[in-house]
Design a protein that fits this description.
The protein has 125 residues and is an alpha+beta fold. It folds into 2 domains: 60 residues, no CATH class; 45 residues, no CATH class. Helices cover 22% and strands 16% of the residues. It has a 4-stranded antiparallel beta sheet. β3 and β4 form a beta hairpin.
């Protein structure tokens, strides 16, 4: 395909925001996170096939929703509350988090947090 065309009306229906400013077209998702920045070139905003967004994902890549347990494992066993907060504030991008998913028991976290018996204050010999 010689050109990649974006439908502004479809982006609008999907609650995305498109901003044209200073020779750039900026596309933001419904949360306000920038997913693509497209430069103006010869009268058009040209989407290059190999162009990537600032977070390294292709602008046309479809993302499935990730549940909180998958995110917990992929992000190094960070707490669910911290993940929800970071994704909602766009501190973490590229994750389409399923906010309705509930955290499940994590064996790895439980094993890492297993308690040890306290040392006795005095030795009984």
């Amino acid at each position: 395909m010689a050109f990649t065309l974006l439908s502004i009306s479809r982006l609008d229906k999907a609650d995305y925001k498109v901003i044209f400013h200073k020779q750039m077209c900026i596309i933001q998702d419904p949360k306000g996170c920038t997913i693509a920045t497209i430069p103006h070139s010869e009268g058009l905003y040209h989407v290059v096939a190999s162009m990537q967004t600032k977070n390294g994902h292709h602008a046309n890549a479809a993302a499935e929703k990730m549940n909180i347990n998958e995110a917990h494992q992929k992000l190094g066993h960070v707490s669910s509350a911290a993940i929800r907060h970071a994704v909602s504030k766009c501190f973490i991008t590229g994750i389409n988090l399923d906010y309705s998913s509930k955290p499940e028991f994590c064996k790895a976290c439980a094993k890492a947090k297993s308690a040890r018996q306290p040392f006795q204050k005095e030795s009984h010999t």
